[in-house]
Each structure stands twice: as structure tokens, then as C-alpha cells.
Amino acid sequence: MSTASTIEWTQSTWNPVTGCTKISPGCKHCYAERMALRLQAMGQSNYTDGFKLTLQPQAVDLPLRWKKPQRIFVNSMSDLFHKDVPLAFIQQVFDVMGRAHWHQFQILTKRAERLAEIASQLPWRPNIWMGVSVERQDYTFRIDHLRQTPAQVKFLSLEPLLGPLPGLNLAGIDWAIVGGESGPGARPMDIAWVTDIRDQCHAAGVAFFFKQWGGVNKKRTGRELEGRTWDEMPERATLEAGGSKQKMRSFERITTPRSFQVSSVGLGRG
Ligand code: SF4
Questions:
Q1: Ligand 1 centroid – CA 110 distance (Å)
Q2: Is the full-model pTM beyond 0.85?
């Protein structure tokens, strides 16, 4: 059994690494840290060291045992490109993703410099989506590093969005996810920042996914923007199912009726 996820833009999570260290303002209220400490208190064996970076070699092969095709968020509880994760371990994780070709894997990092540095030493496959987090204008350089990789689907997680992002260079980018911070002490997000990003995405032909407003009570604030939800997915968001290609929510279906769209109950890595 895979680990079903309530994060709106994925289906399952897989954590061959757990724990991390903070690197930029988006990390301030890291969800993974909160969750790791909770799991440690509950005695969960993968979290005996709490949020300390820990390799989980016993978890590396797990997706090969999950027969049902699914979209899998890699390391929702860590950052695969953290400096303390050895290159050989990252290569093993990539090898498993390539062998588990019936799934789609979504990797997200804030360590975009290391990603660019070692990208040529990794076995990229079409089912591996690569993303970087950008929370503020002074971190848009991560998008340039992402562009240097050969990933066939490149995406942005603009969450927690902490300021406006005017003039984004979206060349080569397939998908952008926007979300406000949630939980205790959540920093506010301005609607104008969100609509500007949406408009930039549409002008550039980039799929736009609005995850949440966030706030202290994210269920109350919901995920509607200008009266509707925005669940666009990259054009290549297809999964092999029973030998035939099954199209998931696609970029063309941007006016999907609300009743067919995913509900807002998820949490995601800060
Ligand atoms: S937000 Fe991401 S990069 Fe920052 S500490 Fe948490 S897991 Fe690490």
C-alpha cells in the first residue's frame, strides 16, 4: 500500500529521506518539521531522530511494489537535494523512479544550485517531474537552475507565497502551483499576487494550480480564486492504466465544474 496524500496536487507520498534543515524564508513554519516532531512523539520508527536528516534505505524500493499507477510526491518530509544526501543515494532514488515507469514522480527542492550541479549525473526518465520552490522574488534564481535540467516536466511551487512575483521568466516551465501559508503564525498572501501569477501563466501557456489561501484555518479560507477553483495540470499529466493511457485533469479542461475537482483538505510541505 502506498501512502495516500491529502496534498491537492499529488496522490501519494514516498519518503526515502526524512528530515531537513531550513534554508530560506519559506522554511520558517515548515510543515514537514511539525509533522516529523509529531510522528517522533507517536513513536514512529522512521522519525526516532525527529527532523534530523535521515536516509531511509528500506524505503527506496517501495514504489516498485505499488502496482496501481499514481502520481507520487518524492520526499514530502525532506529535500532530496540536501547537501547531506550522498549523490549515490540520489542516483538510487532516480534509478527506482525510472524502473517504476507506471508512476509519475514529483520532486520538489529548494536546493536548486545542487540540483543543477548534479543533474547531468542522474538518470532522467520522462516520468520524473522536477520542481523548485520559490516563495519570494529574491529566490527566482532557482527557476534558472531548474531550466538547466533535462527533466521533461518542470514545475514551480510558489508556496508559501510571501510576496509578489512580477516578470517571471516561465520559459520551459510546464506547471505552477500557488498557495498561501497555513497553520499557526501563517503569513498573509495578497490576492493581487495570485491573480498576477495566474495571468502570467496563461500568457505563457503554463498550467496554473491554485492550492489554497492558507491562514490559521485553511479549511475556512478554502481554495477558490475569483469564484472558482484552478486545478490545471501539465499537458503530460497522463498515467498508464491497464495498458491504456488515462488522461488526468488536463490543461485544456480549465473550466471543469467544481463538483469534479479535488477537495481542499490537504497539507503540504512548507
Ligand atoms: S520547507 Fe522544505 S527545504 Fe525548508 S526545512 Fe522544510 S523540508 Fe526543508
A1: 7
A2: yes
